[in-house]
Amino acid sequence: MIDHSILYKTDAIESRVESLAKEISDKLNNMGGDVTFVVVLKGGFRFAADILNMLSIDARRIRIEFMRVEAYASAGVKRDRIRLTTLRDAIEAFTQRNVVILDDLFDSGSTLSCLRRYISSFAPLSIQEAVMLLRHVPDDYAIAKPTWRGFDLPSGLWVYGYGMDAHHEDKRTLSCIAARRT
What we know:
The protein is α/β, with parallel strands linked by helices. Helices cover 26% and strands 37% of the residues.
């Protein structure tokens, strides 16, 4: 028997996202300059839409880009390679702009690490990240943790809902974040 349960209810998510949007707005307004938000598809779309809707930043300063980063296996090794869908106009999107990556989950850090390397090659003013969920990682973890996080995620859980799929693209439209033990 698989044990499924609601990990974060809709009202808790809304409250936390509102708080994150305020933190992000405050920091970016203090920094000045134009901002590119990079939405990591597919799981980050719901989180990104809610964050972007709640920002208090002049809309003329904001650009939104969508990127897909896929971790995949080769020769039986789990998630040992990353495939990044790049932008045609990346120079315009990132050069001399503050960049904020919006993603659903920080797990191993490979997605954000890949995006940071790619974006940094275009000389942005800054690169910061916001994730909805941060899986527990040791303090001495080699990959930098995201700037902002919604909630901590206990280990041993597979999460879905709020944009994240449970299996084969299902349950992305749940307004809560649910989980099952792995």
